[in-house]
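Lab notes, practical 5.
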Amino acid sequence: MDLIDKRVVLTGGASGIGAAVLRRLANKGARCVHVADQNQAALSALISELSPQCDIQGATLDVTDREALTNWFNAADAAMGGIDIVINNAG
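Output from the prediction step:
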């Protein structure tokens, strides 16, 4: 899949598979990634590591909170001018 200039939202992106996916997105040319996770410290560290390669915006989020998830998703959509890929990795 061509990831060049793709706009992506990713849940559960601070560790494990989610962190590996985020690294891959950044390394393969995704334009912007909005990533959410409950672990703020791990998320911040990963954003610091990868931000030179890709525009990454992080949010601390409990995806079981439907209203918070909807608000985050809508804000990401508005900020990026659309979403090309959704990766639901949380849980």
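Observations recorded by the TA: Strands lie at 7-11, 32-37, 55-60, 85-88. The longest strand covers residues 32-37.
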